[in-house]
Amino acid sequence: MLDCATRLKAIGHTEAAPKFFRYSSLGHLDELLSSMNDIEFPALGIPDNQDGSLGNAADNAVDTPQYDFCIIKHVDYEDHDARETAKAECKALGLKIIARLRYDARKMQNGLTFLRFSNVPYQTIGPIGDNCFGVLFSIQVADTANVVYVAADWNLAE
Description:
eight-stranded mixed sheet, about 25% helix
């Protein structure tokens, strides 16, 4: 995602103009944005925490982690039109990132071979921080899971 934030022209993250950040939860994102004076917008954020699920596919264990990212913009207070415009622009930028991830998946690059594009949930967020609005996206990239019972791992009564 750092590469996306750096290479996507509309975001253009650099050390001089930081537009990429990590956060642990939406509550922490609110606190982070309230205290960051040097971030520029639009910005791309990703959480440090990870969610996912374990399941079966053709009798093989599959780990399906969920990765989130958000695109946010700052808007003036009490400007409803600017809020809606920011959300639309953030969604458009997020779709560009999704398109890049799909491209990488088709080319079997960057570990995205098993990107699940059939369902990419998103939701608008805001106001957070200093009146920021945007869109939160979720993607899943399935992988094999090492779910194997090994008797030697257990103290078993005989």
